[in-house]
Amino acid sequence: MPALSEILVAALLLASGIIVLVAALGLWRLPNFFLRMHAPALASTLAAWLVTFASIVHFSARSAGLALHVWLIIIVLSITAPVTTIVLARAALFRRRQAGEPLPAPLQPRS
User: Fold this and answer.
1) Confidence of residue 63 (pLDDT cuts 50, 70, 90)
2) Is residue 46 exposed (0-12), middle (13-18) or buried (19+ Cβ within 10 Å)?
């Protein structure tokens, strides 16, 4: 495998790891569930895209042609990750309503 492709794969995987680390810090630092779920939801999708690009570069460098079989994985992940986040938020809102707890205030646009 050419050294340039190895460097590119390593850089993409390192960037993916850094993004996930920042998301974990956001998960740790944010005060409530609804804010905590935002950071990992966005970061996991971006990190998965970076890993996908790294996989495409790796498998394309090892074979004779462009290896696009990895796209199937990222398409499924890009569809299911946001849907899962929405379902978790709705379930948390439902549980709060059932328990009689106050719901989070809607976001107001800054003026």
Assistant:
1) confident
2) middle
